[in-house]
Design a protein that fits this description.
The protein contains six helices and twelve strands. It has about 400 residues and is an alpha+beta fold. Among the domains are: about 170 residues, OB fold (Dihydrolipoamide Acetyltransferase, E2P) (Beta Barrel); about 100 residues. The strands form two sheets. Strands 1-8-11-10-9-12 form a six-stranded antiparallel barrel. A four-stranded antiparallel β-sheet has the order 5-4-2-7, with no helix packed on it. Helix 2 runs antiparallel to helix 3, helix 2 runs parallel beside helix 6 and helix 4 packs across helix 6. It is elongated, with a radius of gyration of 47 Å. It starts with 14 loop residues before the first helix and ends in a 10-residue tail after the last helix. The relative contact order is 0.17.
Length: about 400
């Protein structure tokens, strides 16, 4: 016979006791998690500021013509890599060449006119000498006529000299006086002409005369316009946004394409204003690009903090003094410079999203930059074109005569 045992007599822990032990265990886990988080925050997290509102930036150089013209050739396409000084677009140079030819002809004519001015100085000097000689001769005639009148005047009363002869001597004296006055006026006029001729050439030479320099400047201007018919890349970079076509008539300043200098990129990290308190220039940063994921880490440093919030420099800034107002946390762009070697190994593109973590443990840096950063100057056309100077000199030498002889200085 089987003995049935009453299960109700088996001792079991009360339900309240089980719940209490569960709560204690849960509290212990939460407490340990809180302690672990506190330790992690104190030892690590509090030394970092992070944001995912960060984007790659680079210098985007817009290519615009400095002179108008018709597009004759296009040597690049979108995504092409170009070197500084490489030709991108060529405009029809016919109009610029005609203007240069006209400027050369005008320079030659001006040099001839200036040579005439210097020649006029010599002629004016000779004219003054001739007029002074005429005045000396007339003055001698006047003295002789005066002597004749003075000698005959006492003899008229005694009848030794007739009245007719005396009046004839007086008439000659009057004519001599008139001739002397006219000669003196001629000398004065010749001297004024000489002064005027000297004033046009004094202190300069035929090559350095202001008229010649003005005409030479027009030649250089026309030569520069001819050179500007070829648009070159000012920096190394990649072509983007090409919107020009063959045969298109373009005006000065019209955007044709852009050159993006991806070799010198940086990141604009837009931190909240509450995160700026511990950000300093020079602090190290680690960055991840969405295009490469977590497997690629970029290293950089804080290069500068923006001078204002993004909304302050927007096209239509907020007018917080009107209507209802809701506080919105503002963001300030922080510039992060990247390691060039890492960028070369893993190229970035303008506008890519980045995750930024800045180590703010070092607080010795400055919050605002006080000195400008030294950056490489983009490749530009030479300020003084030797070819234009040589062209000007050839035209001047040709008009001055063989060997380009200079006229004397006056």
């Amino acid at each position: 016979m089987t003995d049935n045992t009453n299960t109700a007599d088996t001792p079991t822990p009360p339900a309240a006791s089980r719940r209490r032990r569960s709560l204690i265990a849960l509290a212990a886990v939460v407490g340990l998690a809180g302690v672990a988080y506190g330790g992690w925050y104190w030892l690590f997290a509090r030394h970092y500021e992070d944001t995912d509102n960060a984007y790659v930036q680079a210098h985007v150089v817009q290519i615009t013509p400095q002179v108008g013209g018709t597009v004759e050739s296009i040597d690049v396409e979108d995504t092409d890599f170009v070197k500084a000084g490489q030709t991108l677009v060529k405009l029809d140079p016919a109009d610029a060449q005609v203007a240069l030819d006209q400027a050369e002809a005008q320079l030659g004519q001006t040099v001839r006119e200036v040579r005439t001015l210097f020649a006029n100085v010599q002629g004016a000097q000779a004219q003054v000498a001739a007029r002074e000689a005429d005045l000396a001769r007339v003055q001698a005639d006047l003295a002789r006529a005066q002597d004749d009148v003075d000698r005959r005047a006492p003899l008229v009363a005694g009848g030794a000299v007739g009245q007719e002869e005396f009046r004839h001597a007086q008439a000659q004296l009057a004519a001599a006086k008139g001739a002397a006055a006219a000669a003196r006026s001629a000398v004065a006029a010749a001297r004024e002409q000489q002064a005027s001729a000297v004033a046009l050439t004094q202190g300069t030479t035929a090559e350095d005369h202001p008229n010649v320099k003005r005409a030479a400047a027009r030649v250089r201007e026309a030569h520069l316009a001819l050179q500007r018919a070829a648009l070159v890349a000012p920096v190394d970079g990649w072509i983007a946004r090409r919107n020009v076509q063959l045969g298109q008539r373009v005006q000065a300043g019209a955007p044709l394409m852009s050159v993006v200098a991806l070799g010198d990129v940086w990141v604009d990290a837009n931190f909240k204003e509450s995160q700026l308190q511990r950000l300093r220039i020079g602090q190290p940063a680690e960055l991840h690009a969405d295009v490469y994921g977590k497997k690629v880490v970029f290293h950089g440093k804080v290069a500068g903090l923006g001078a204002g919030t993004g909304s302050a420099f927007s096209l239509l800034p907020a007018q917080n003094a009107t209507g209802n107002w809701i506080k919105i946390v503002q963001r300030v762009p922080v510039r992060i410079e990247l390691d060039p070697a890492e960028v070369q190994a893993h190229p970035l593109r303008v506008g890519l999203s980045m995750l930024v973590d800045v180590d703010v443990a070092d607080q010795s840096g400055k919050m605002l930059a006080d000195t400008p950063r030294q950056r490489q100057k983009p490749e530009q056309l030479a300020e003084a074109d030797p070819a234009a100077d040589a062209l000007v000199q050839r035209v001047i030498d040709r008009q001055l005569g063989k060997g380009g002889a200079r006229h004397g200085q006056h």
